[in-house]
Every structure is written in structure tokens, then in C-alpha cells.
## 1
Amino acid sequence: MTCEVFLRSNPSTMAITIYQAAWVLPITAPPIPQGALAIADDKIIFVGAQAEAATQPRLQHAEVIHLNGAALLPGFINTHTHLELNFFRGFLEDLAFREWILKLTTTKYERLTNDDLAASAMLGAAEALRAGVTCVADTGDSRAAFDALRQSGLRGVAYREVFGPNAADASMSLEGLKVKVAEMREEETELVRVGVSPHAPYTVSGELFRRVVEYAAQESLDVCIHTAESAAEENLLRDGSGEFAERLAARGIEWKAPQQSTIQYFAALGVLDVAPLLVHCVRVDDEDLALIGKHRARIAHCPKSNAKLGHGIAPLAKMLAANIRVGLGTDSVASNNRLDLMSEAQFCALLHRAASQHFKAPGAERLLQMMTLDGARVLGLEDKIGALEIGKQADFIALDLTKRHHQPLHDVMAAILFAATSDDVILTMVAGRVLFAEGVIQAFDEPEWQTRCKRLFPQPPSF
Ligand SMILES: [Zn+2]
């Protein structure tokens, strides 16, 4: 299917453009066969059947783009990534969690410059756009992802990380964070916001957690934390044992185990009071989920990363039953190894169905909602994105469903969830701007950034 027409139809030069497709999936309404989506500038102005669009006087002179055989749906929302770590795909295989973290941080700090991280993040942005992702919640300890989001045209939140397991260093760590965040906030845009991320309970002292959430509340900054991810983390908090405890002791850092779960610990520290975005939540029980629900905190579910690192399976069904807002996240390519939310959703469906021995836990419709509207709710962006509705931002994608692996096509939602791959994405648009079409990233020079990356890791790549 050709997308040539996309390239001359950028709405910045067109008043109204209508995209006609075999299906339009608004997400908040059933799929529309022979559907149409009309946009003006950065907004959606019509969603419905093509026959209905033909009766609308204001659409009579619009340019019409025909996408026969395609499905239009809201862009995917990846609620947890680390774009700056795109260099690390395949670099940290089959390591225990502590060794995995040590090798990652040592390599990052000893081998990579800020320019390298910028190149890594730009390739991460390209990978996301190619996979139909239009919004990213990224966590990083450089500003590389923040810059990549703005340069690539993606929408998103860049959570600036802070570390500091030694309580005595809490003031210094917070002051450093404030300087970095202030600098980034001056460059926030309509599409890209800044948040903060005290990394995890095993890298951030209780004192630093308290201070960061206090600062975040004062400054209205969203907070994101790696939470209840591993057995090592649980052991550290429950009884001060395990590999993280050993690591802290080896560094001469005093640690007194709170003898609580991570969620109870966060509740006691006041961390849950800012309703943070909690990444992972693999090791949570019913009481923890009740606390998360009570505080209106949100969860980024990253099933592939959790499985690949051997951490386990997060209790998704219980999270959803508790009405907790849950989005899907890929985590970084260091633990995935893709930034592909379609692959993530397919894995999520199969994993939880297998584990629960239930044929529909979760169903295709729910997964598509998690990839779009639920992700928007997790990021507080549901008024702008996550569904194809009049007045919402024109953040949408087109999937080519004419390929052999889609024939015959009896159920469009099942086709997208279980048969489609990210290679079926033929168009990615954010705020009415075409960012990916014709197999090419439109917003920036992807090959140039690839060349910069090859300088760092000349072996392989062999294409
Ligand atoms: Zn992460």
C-alpha cells in the first residue's frame, strides 16, 4: 500500500483532510467499517462512516486520502521507556539483575557521552514512531530523551531520574535534580512535559524519596518510580537481605529494612500521596493494590521486561479489577529488546491467558484500550489523546491489513492484536503532523543518527 499521498497532505498546508479506511477504531466506540477520519490542523473534526462524511457540508472540499484495506486507530502510548538506552540492545543478555544494572550503569558512565546518549535516544524515537507509538513516558538520567521527543515530534513525558541511596546525600541529590529539571522546564512544549523519577527503593534513600515528592508536589511535577520489580528489591525491604543489601553494605551505605512491601514503604514515606506512576508492580499483594487504588496511583505494566529478566508476572487482572489505571510499557531495549507496543500487547495477552488458564484474560478489545486510552489516562492526557473523537488531537496511525498474514480477516481487533506486526504500520501522525510514512521517518534524518551510533558500537552491526 502506498503512502505517497501522505507526504503531500501535511495538514499544515491543508485546511481539512479526510482519511478513508477499511476500518476506523475510535476505541471509545465500536470499529467503524468503511470509516472516515477528518482532521483540521492538529485536531480531529469528524469520525464516522464514509457515507456519513459525504453528507457533511464542511467536508465537501476536503482532500480525501484513500487507505483501502487499512485500519486507523489512535497512536499507541508507551508508558515506560528509556530511549537513551537504545544502544544497549543485546548488550546485557542473561545476567542476574544486579549484574545487569551494574554493567549498564558502568558502561553508560564510562563509555558514553551526552552526545552518544542523544544519538541513542533519537534512534529510540525512530523505532517508536515506526511501531506506531505516538506518545512516550520516558525515564532517564540525562536529557537525551527529552530532546529526542522534541526533535522527533513525539508527544510525551520525560521523567528526569535522581539517584542517591545514602540519606546523607539527599540534599545534594535534590539540588542537582532541581537544576536539571529547571533547565528542561524552560524548554517544555505543548507536546513534551517534564517529570521526575526517584529511580527505585534500592537506589534512592527514604529521605531522598520524601524530599523529591515534596518538591514534585510544590512544582506540580509528575512522578515515576520503578516499583516492586524484583525478589532482590523485596528482600532488601522485608529483611535487609539479598544482593541489593550486599551492594549497599559494600559501598558502606547504612540500610535499615522497613520490613514492609515496597508499596507499604511508599505509603509510609508519603510517596503515594503524589499518585505516582509506578513501573512494574510485579511483587504486589491485595493490600498493596488497595493502597495503590486508594491513592489513585497508576501502573506501567511491562510484561516482556519482567519475563525476560526473570522477575515474574505482574497481577494485571487484579489491577484492572481494582480499577487502577494501567498502561502498557516496553521498558528499554536492554530488557525487551524492542520498543514495540504491538509486540508487547500480544505477549501480554498470551502470557496472562496462559498463566490464568482463561481464554479472555485479557481480551483483544481491552488490550487495544490499554495501548491507547488507558495509556492516556495513566499520563493524565485522556482529554487530548487515546481515542479518535471529535476535538481530540490528531494523534493516529494507519495499519496495513492487506498483507498475507491478515487473510482472511474476520475480526479486526483480533487481527491487530494477534496477527499484525509493527511492520504493518504505514503512517504515524502526532498533532496532525506526519512523522512516519512511506517507510521513512519524516521528522528527522534517521540515517545520520544511525551513523553516529555506529561509531560507538562498530561491531557488529551486520545488516
Ligand atoms: Zn525502566
## 2
Amino acid sequence: MGITKEQALMAIDREKAVLTNASDRVWDNPETAFQEFKSTEILCELLEKEGFEVEKNLANIATAFSGRYGSGKPVIGFLGEYDALSGLSQEADIFEKKPIIDGEPGHGCGHNLLGVGSIAAAIAMKEYLEKNGKEGTVIFYGCPGEEGGSGKGFMARDGVFDELDFAVSWHPADQNSVVVGSSLANYQIYYRFYGVSSHAAASPEMGRSALDAVELMNTGVQYLREHVIQEARIHYAITNTGGFSPNVVQPFAEVLYLIRAPKNGQVKEIYERINDIARGAALMTGTRMEMQFVKACSNLVDNTVMEEVMQKNLETVQCEPYTEEELAFAKQMYDTYGGSKLSLQAVLTRYEKSHKAMVEEVLAPHMNDIICTAIVPLMDTETPMAGSTDVGDVSWVCPTVQANICTESFGTPGHSWQMVAQGKSTIAHKGMIFAGKVMAATAIDMYENPELIVKAKEELAKRVGPEGYVAPIPAGIRPMAINPKK
Ligand SMILES: [Zn+2]
Ligand SMILES: [Zn+2]
């Protein structure tokens, strides 16, 4: 009297109201990296209600948690996020920029959907194990601080994912695709300069300017750019200029660096050269430099075995069709940013060297979609995606796969008010439910074909090499709220 994969997925439909309600409540309480206290409460409550055993304070992080069901092997992980972005407060379901509270955070990356979509997958997987009386463990991981915090990097460093046989995740997007290829690894570091204040006209010789040090450091890094690999990216923000008075020699200044490159080792090498530049700037200005390592994340290790399983499910599991009202809503949103085919074009660019013609053939009919129903074909690519994700660290520890799932009007810019405004729409809810089903179906296929788990692990071992995962975040570094509440 067992149940099939398709019957297990129906558990997600059964819980749809509870799931969308939880996602909307997370949207209503936007919290930035490592401050996700209400969101943690909402999601833990949902997990408990659904029969998962909740464990809080993972890796000693107050807003990291898990929900566990079952016992024994395999151990299947679903990764969820729920942090928001600062300054993106926005009313839902309107077609103009209008903050609910000016300056407050908003869900501009759809993580209200991300967390709950992954819980949906865990619910279906639990249903499958429970109703079939099968052995196996399903764990939902609540991973905080993805935006600028690399929560999973800290969790991976502390061994949280070590017991997993494989992990599955997703991200809200404006099209449907399995994530292929790598992403950029990154490091984030504060450089702080301490000088001596003095009257800038009466006694300038007594002063040592920390702001000069920041400027010289940045100038040094501009010259470094010519001598790093093409794919590297070096970003910075001056987070403290030392004050508003030009007649004071600034005694303190601070700059935050974000360094990216395709591989962990490449980031490390550039990081060490930037440290030398910072030391040089301190030496030149007679100031003292202190650095604070904020966080790091690894590049993604893709897993073709799991990508193929997920692609098959992305193509067969159905998303609930969009209604006329939803298309009209999406069109109105689309018009606020003038529409855009950028995201599909970005897909095409990444495939330029490999399978462009084939991808183009599938995607061409979707270029004018308002809600993009395209399923991007699965093809390997050597070009890493332009951004970074802390899913990268999990992907070094166990075979990991993720999908982009459509939750918004086509071409919606990431981290925008339009993204926030659509976060409680039925389009978003449909995408979230679809994502849960695709993820659960992928996990069930892996479960039913244990040789795939073996193969996925062999592929991982080959890709990471004998050294395996070396956490890029040094021991002792603690997660840091970039935007702490006053
Ligand atoms: Zn984001
Ligand atoms: Zn995101």
C-alpha cells in the first residue's frame, strides 16, 4: 500500500494554503542577514506543524535551523533562505515604487518564497518516506544571511552538511532552468585605518589621515586590476570616510572590499595582494591598518548526474497554468521596467561557445513572453555565472543541484522594487509550489535509484580533487550582520 512519486507530490497541493501563508508572513516581516528572527519563528513553527523535529542555533548562529524527519540513509537535504535586502521596502501588488516604510528592508530576491518552497519539497519527501514506510532522513536547512553574509559558508565550515548524501535547492527567477556551470567564489573584508586627528590648517603636520590611506589603497587596487585574471571582479564601498569636516584630518576611515574570481584559490591570491596594498597605504600615510575578514563563499561545483535528474523533472512536473488576470498583472509590472529579454539573452551569452544554436531554437519563441514559460535546455558551459552563491560551499561537501523557477514577470530586475511587489502574487505562489514539486521529484528519483547517488558522489570526488573542501572562511570568524538593527 505504498504511494508513488506523483502521489507524494500531492502533499504539496494539500498544504498549499499553509505554505503560501507562511511565505506571505515572511514577506511581511523582511529581515536582513543574520537578523531573521521572526522569519525563523514562522518557518520553525511551520516545520513543527508538519511533523519535523526542529533544531535551532545550527553552527551557533541564532537564525540557522533545521527540520528533520526519518532515520537512516540516504540523508537528503533541502536548502532554504529567508533573508531580505536593506532599503527595498515596497508595497505588494502595485505598479509603482512605494515603500511601506522608507529605508526598511524588503524581499527583493524572493527569499520569502525560497525558504517555503524548499520546505514544500521536504514535506513531499517526508510523505514519500512515511507512507511507504521507507528508511531515509529528510532535512530542511534554514540558511540565514545569503545576501552579503554567506550563511551556508559558516554552516559548511562547521560541518552542518557533512551527513548529507545530496542536497537540492532552488531560486526564484523569471524563467525555468536547472542551474549549470559554476559561480564565482568570493571574499569580503573590511580594511580600517586609524590615523591622528588634527586641525587641517593650523597643525596639519600633527595629523595622519585615515581617509588618505583609504584613497591610496583604492588607487593601488585600481592599478592591480591590470594584473589579475580577466574573470576576477574587485568591488569596494567606502563605509566610513571619517566625518563631514574637511578642516579636520580624518582619524578613522573604513573600506569594505568584495573580491570575486572563478575559483577559491584565485580569490585567495588576489586577497593576499590586496592585503599588501592596504599595508602599503598604511605605511605611506603613517596610519595603522586593521582588517576584519567578514565572510567568503566557494564557487559552485556542478553535478551533471543530479542536473540531468532535475532537468527531467523540470520538464515533466507541471506548473499550474497562468490565468488571464495573472498575465494582465505581469504585463502591467513588465511595463514599469520597459520589459526586458536580458535574462534569456544572458543564458544565450553563457552558451555562446557550446550549444548556442540548440538553446536559441528552444528559447526564441519565448523572447516576447510576459511570464516566461520556457524550460531552458540542459547543457554544460564553461562560463561561470556572473554572481556568487553560498550554495557553492554545500556543493563542495555533497552533490548539490538547484533550479531557477519562474515566480515573476519576464525580465524583472533582481533586487528591485518590482521583485518585492510581486512576492505575494499568485504568480509567485504558483512558482513556489512548482519549485517544491520539482525538488521533491528530483530527490525521490535519486532515492529510488541509489546508483545515481553513487555516481553523483563519484562525480563530486572527481571535480573537487583529493584535497576536498577547504572552508574559505577562517576558523574563529563569526557571521556578521551587515546591517545591524539599532
Ligand atoms: Zn539576491
Ligand atoms: Zn537570492
